[in-house]
């Protein structure tokens, strides 16, 4: 059997959806119910190292070892990562062997499970590092499909800048992949994140999506509006029209949260600081600053603005009662190997 490659380290930036992904047409394959559109960020993301034992001698009782932010991963996370690595092992075949165990270390640059898309960057980085450590060199579209199997939004973090994720039509999900959008390259925008709490959110995205789809009377209306938002966002990005893109981003976020809030029982991610941060963004806009908000499945507010206004936006949001801190990021590159694997 061919020995596996040595340890490989990859970095993937988190991505923030401007046209939201909320709901699945197939939970097992993480197939989205709609398309989505996002911005991959530069300095916020995940760094992951993967090493497979080269002789495949892990044996039936051996397990993958997963270390997250310096501590052993919990059982649920370990099971999720192992299921993903099993797909890589199956794809790699004799390059790594079905019994080869992996040692995975990962560091998140954003809080985990808090609504800052840590799973998107996490599984994108894992997809790149694991495949290269297993001796595979997959093209970006195949990496996007693979990353999606770990986390639906991870498909977008394979690419940099503005990225669109296709819903796809095929039952096997082979056409449910992301692609970079032309026209946004070099656009000097920033995303200012207002962190409004610490710790994980009360309900994970997967469970919340399923609950919303099953119980919310607004869910069908949410689905019906996404294609219109995607078309408008594409036009705005091609024209570099920030106000037009901002209108779409705010509309998409509010409709997604409205659908979740209308679930039975309601899913409410917002806290008082969330509402205060929204009011701050609107007040800045009334003063003439082109800044627009979006909110993922969590309590944190992200403000999209021009680079020249980022400092002013960050200072204003940091002064909002309840905001813990602000983070400012620019558009960033896609997931990539940073050590080992021929990097």
Question: Care to describe what's here?
Answer:
The protein is an alpha+beta fold and 343 residues long. The chain is built from nine helices and 14 strands. Strands 1, 4, 5, 6, 7, 8, 9 and 14 form an eight-stranded mixed beta sheet that branches. The chain has a four-stranded antiparallel beta sheet with strand order 11-12-10-13. The chain has a two-stranded antiparallel ribbon with strand order 2-3. Helix 2 (118-133) packs across helix 3 (140-150) and helix 6 runs antiparallel to helix 7 (242-261). The two termini are 24 Å apart.
List keywords for this structure.
alpha+beta; Ribosomal Protein S5, domain 2; 4-stranded antiparallel β-sheet; Alpha-Beta Plaits; single chain; 2 domains; 343 residues
Summarize the SSE layout with pairings:
Blueprint: E1 8-19, E2 24-26, E3 31-32, E4 36-52, E5 65-68, E6 71-72, H1 75-92, E7 102-108, H2 118-133, H3 140-150, H4 154-157, E8 162-165, E9 178-180, E10 189-195, H5 205-215, H6 219-239, H7 242-261, H8 272-286, E11 291-294, E12 301-306, H9 310-318, E13 325-329, E14 336-339
Parallel strand pairs: 5-7
Antiparallel strand pairs: 1-4, 1-14, 2-3, 4-7, 4-8, 5-6, 8-9, 10-12, 10-13, 11-12
Helix pairs in contact: 2-3, 6-7
């Amino acid at each position: 059997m061919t020995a596996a490659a040595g340890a490989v380290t990859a970095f993937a930036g988190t991505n923030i959806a401007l046209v939201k992904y909320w709901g699945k047409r197939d939970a097992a394959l993480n197939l989205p119910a709609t398309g989505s559109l996002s911005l991959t960020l530069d300095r916020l993301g995940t760094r992951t190292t993967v090493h497979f034992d080269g002789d495949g001698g892990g044996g039936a009782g051996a397990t993958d070892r997963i270390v997250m932010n310096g501590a052993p991963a919990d059982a649920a996370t370990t099971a999720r990562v192992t299921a993903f690595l099993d797909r890589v092992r199956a794809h790699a075949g004799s390059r790594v062997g079905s019994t080869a165990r992996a040692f995975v270390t990962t560091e998140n640059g954003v809080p985990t499970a808090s609504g800052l898309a840590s799973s998107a960057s996490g599984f994108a980085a894992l997809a790149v590092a694991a495949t290269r450590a297993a001796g595979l060199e997959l093209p970006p579209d195949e990496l996007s499909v693979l990353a999606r199997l770990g986390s639906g939004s991870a498909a977008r973090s394979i690419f940099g800048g503005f990225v669109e994720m296709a819903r796809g039509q095929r039952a096997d999900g082979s056409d449910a992949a992301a692609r970079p959008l032309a026209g946004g390259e070099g656009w000097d925008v920033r995303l200012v994140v207002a962190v409004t709490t610490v710790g994980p959110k009360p309900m994970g995205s997967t469970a919340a999506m399923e609950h919303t789809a099953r119980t919310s009377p607004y869910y069908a209306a949410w689905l019906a509006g996404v294609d219109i938002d995607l078309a408008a966002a594409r036009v705005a990005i091609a024209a570099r029209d920030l106000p037009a893109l901002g209108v779409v981003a705010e509309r998409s976020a509010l409709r997604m949260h409205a659908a979740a809030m209308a679930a039975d029982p309601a899913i409410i991610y917002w806290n008082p600081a969330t509402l205060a941060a929204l009011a701050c963004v609107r007040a800045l806009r009334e003063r003439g600053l082109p800044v627009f908000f979006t909110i993922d499945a969590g309590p944190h507010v992200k403000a999209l603005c021009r680079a020249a206004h980022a400092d002013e936006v960050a200072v204003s949001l940091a002064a909002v009662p309840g905001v813990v801190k602000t983070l400012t990021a620019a558009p960033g590159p896609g997931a990539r190997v940073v050590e080992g694997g021929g990097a």
